[in-house]
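Exam revision sheet. Question 4 asks you to relate a sequence to its structure. Input first:
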Amino acid sequence: MKINITQILKYLFLGLVGGSIYYGIEVAYRGYSHWTMYCLGAICFICLGLINVVLSWETPLWLQGLIGGSIISVLELITGIVVNINLHWNVWNYTNPTNFMGQISLYSSIGWCFLSLVGIVLDDYLRYWIFHETKPKYKLL
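Answer key, structure tokens:
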């Protein structure tokens, strides 16, 4: 099996960008964060970027945002179960009435759908500008 160092470096870079943004959003919103959120942000950003790799550019942007928000919510739930419930690190706990196991909530999931749109577009343009991939072309509806 041949390892493509360019692909590894690309995803490492995109993960660093995503982790930094996610961590920054948490610090701006809550005033603090945790290193696990940096890791989660890196994984989420890479997953958002893969939406346009897996799906066609014809996939409407609103649907990509919905998919992205769902991906982030699932990854937050998995991370929450591991770090908050199993390891008892208590990194976060949603206490609003729409929470599920205290790890995700309907409100935050809706927010992730909108933020996913920003992440998807940012990833696409980073890939275009830095890695000379396909120029983004979005279908809105």
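Marking note for examiners. Residues 62 and 133 are 22 Å apart (CA to CA).
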